[in-house]
Each structure stands twice: as structure tokens, then as C-alpha cells.
Amino acid sequence: MVEEVVKCCKCCKVIEILLGFFQTFTTLTTFPTNFLPLRFTWNCMSEKILVIGANGQIGTELVAALRGIYGSEAVIASDLKSPVYALKKSSGPYEIVNVLDKDNLHHIFEKYNPTQVYLLAAILSAVGEQKPKVAWDLNMTGLLHVLDFSVEFKVEKVFWPSSIAVFGPHSPQHETPQYCVMDPNTVYGFSKLAGERWCEYYFTKYGLDVRSLRYPGLIGWRANPGGGTTDYAVHIFHQALKTGNYESFLSADTALPMMYMDDAIRATITLMNAPADEVTIRSAYNLAGISFTPAQLADEIKKHIPGFEITYAGNDPRQAIADSWPKSIDDSYAQKDWGWKQEYDLPKMVEDMLVNLQDIV
Ligand code: NAD
Question: Catalytic: which of 188, 202, 232, 285?
């Protein structure tokens, strides 16, 4: 049986009609139907996916993944800056975009008429504390511009990432639930919390299909992190391979929720492809990966690089941010609503990072 057809344009309608005929034919005859694929997904050439902030840690990986699924021409990478090496290498459209410049952004929406938009441009937690007003402006105004243009241009789906930074010192720290006290004390955290409220508001008021995840700290080997509190968990791999030692800016026992990038990209695309009525949360879903401390991560790295040594800096302003965040996350809504399941645990992630980075650093 054909369970699902993902429609995006007139050609999909034609395919749908043909499939309808085919199904009618198979029910009217004794033709065996069970050879048909259970899930038929038609990703039409006319799908246009705009990724804003494509040069960053997530964008470089997400653009590659989306181009793998929808084709290079269907995915428009865009950023304030010219493309990083990984994006230059992969073919596909690229645009210089400033999400704060309404005319510039409007022109891009007009030019491509996107069916999906991923907004990744933001200032992250650690940099946000150095430039609080700039962070608030980019994280809020940028989001509102994208939401408004998405309504105006009838964009079918919008993805905007939230973060575990929406939680604060009075939120439960272990297995932090989806709904609880939220009192973030960083500009980044309360810009994300306000952003979640705006997303839900645009869904309720204007019917815009906005979807979001509260990403934990993300770890990947293809791109450098952009100034967050969890960046140590990427830097440590580079230093372990380059020098055999690393000075952590977080203390040995600071547990934080983290996730391997492959899992994060898979979660994002799974959420974006879930049927709309199964997406019951329109603020942002809790998403859990692996929780570990710098000491536990160092121990796992030592299994591969026995001489590796870690030291701890102390007195880093990022420690206070980390102390206000959850140590682990309860993501049961994501599991229940769209079948989320992580693949990478700590040993598997460490092995994959080291294997891939050893030829690069
Ligand atoms: P990043 O800092 O690596 O990348 C952000 C990109 O946005 C950069 O390439 C930057 O040039 C671009 N940008 C900045 N200002 C812009 C503007 N005015 N117009 C257009 N582009 C602009 O960030 P990231 O780690 O890829 O994160 C992407 C999103 O995911 C952000 O919303 C972030 O808050 C969220 N997030 C990330 C993590 C993580 O661990 N990386 C965790 C939780 C949430």
C-alpha cells in the first residue's frame, strides 16, 4: 500500500493521480500489491529550501544532508559571509544574505519563493554574553523577519532551532522535562525562550507550520563551533590529536547534555518530514543525546590516545552558564510524537570523531 505521498507541486499532483489510478486498478484486479513500497516519498525538483546561516557549525552539515536528499539545486545556502570551504566545494546555489536587512531578505524570498526555510543565523551563548544587545537583536529581529516573510510568501515549513539554554537555575537539572520552570539568565537563553513563544504564536495565529528543537551542545568534525558554552567538547578532539593535551574551560565534573551532529541532523530532518498533525509541540521539542562531563569525555579519548592529558582552567565565565543549564534532558515527547531515537552514545561518538579528524588536523 502507498501510505504517504509528500506533495510539493503540480507534478506531485500528477504522480498522486497516477498512483490513485494504480491503486484503484490493483484493488479491482487480483494484482499483488505488496511489492509496492510502504512509504513513497516524492521529493520534487521544484522543492526550494532556503538555509540562512549556512556557513556555521550546523549549516555546513545540514546543507550537505539536504542536498543529498533533495538535490543540489533545490537547496539555497545563504549567509552573511562568503561560503566556507565545505560549501564552496559542494555545488548548489549560494547567496549572501543579512537576515537583519529586510530588503535584502525580501529579495531572496522573492527570487526563490522557498517551500521550506531553515533559519540558523544566531549569536550563541558565550559570544552573546559579550555582546548582549547585538545577540538579542539578531536572535529576535532575524527570527521575526523570517516568520513574517514566511507568512507573506506562504512557505510550507519553517525550521528554527532553540536550545537547552532556555532552561535556567530553577529548572529541574536532571531529566529536565518539556514543561517546567524556565528562568534562563543568559541573553542567548531568553532570546531562545522568546523565540519559542513567537514560533508557537505564528503557528496558532497565522497557521505557519513552524517546527523547532531544543538542541543540546552539538559535536561534529566537519565544522568548527561558533562560540557556545559546549564548544570544549569539539576543541578537545582537535587538541588531543594535535598536541596530546587540552585545557578545559569547564570543570571536570560539569555534566551537560550533548549530541553528535549526525544525530542532530537526522532529528532535524525527521521532525521536518513528520506529518503536521503529529507535531504537537510548536514551541520547541526537548531533544536528548548523551550527557557527560569533561572528565568522562577525556577518559573515553584516553582509550584511543593513551597519553592524552586534560587540565582545567578555572575562572572561565562559561562555567556559570554551564552551571545554570540542565545536566540531562527528558525527550519523551519527541520519542512519542515523531519516533525520535538517538544512535550515538559516548564511545561511538568518540571513535567516529577521532577516525574522521585524524586526517584533517
Ligand atoms: P554558528 O555560529 O556556527 O553559525 C551561525 C551562522 O550564522 C554563521 O555562519 C554566521 O556567519 C551566520 N550569521 C550571523 N549573522 C547573520 C546575519 N545577520 N545574516 C545571515 N547570517 C548570519 O551557529 P551554529 O552552531 O551553526 O547554530 C545554528 C543555530 O543552532 C543557532 O540558532 C544556534 O542558536 C542553534 N544551536 C546551536 C547549538 C550548537 O551546539 N551548535 C546548540 C543549540 C542551538
Answer: 188
> Is the dihedral angle over the CA atoms 298, 299, 305, 308 positive or is it negative?
positive
Ligand 1 pocket member 267 (CB < 6 A): no
Q: What is the pTM (predicted TM-score) of this model?
A: 0.89
> How does pLDDT run across 127-186, given as a tens digit for each residue?
999 999 999 999 999 999 999 999 999 999 999 999 999 999 999 999 999 999 999 999
Counting beta carbons within 10 angstroms of the beta carbon of residue 163, is it exposed (0 to 12), middle (13 to 18) or buried (19 or more)? buried
Helix (H) or strand (E) segment spanning residue 77? strand 75-79
Query: What is the rounded distance in angstroms from the CA atom of residue 73 to the CA atom of residue 77?
Result: 10
**Rounded distance between C-alpha atoms, residue 241 and residue 360, angstroms:** 10
In the residue annotation, 188 being an active-site residue is answered as yes
**Is residue 152 helix, strand or coil?**
helix
Question: Distance from first CA to last CA of the chain, Å, rounded?
Answer: 49
Assess contact for 258 and 328: CB atoms under 8 A: no
Any idea where the domains of the chain sit in the sequence?
2-40
Three cell numbers at 31?
494484482
Label the pairing between strands 210-211 and 157-159: parallel
Ligand 1 within 6 A of 189 CB?
no
Is residue 174 classed as helix, strand or coil in its secondary structure? Answer: coil
Residue among 64, 11, 3, 1 at smallest CA distance from 33: 1
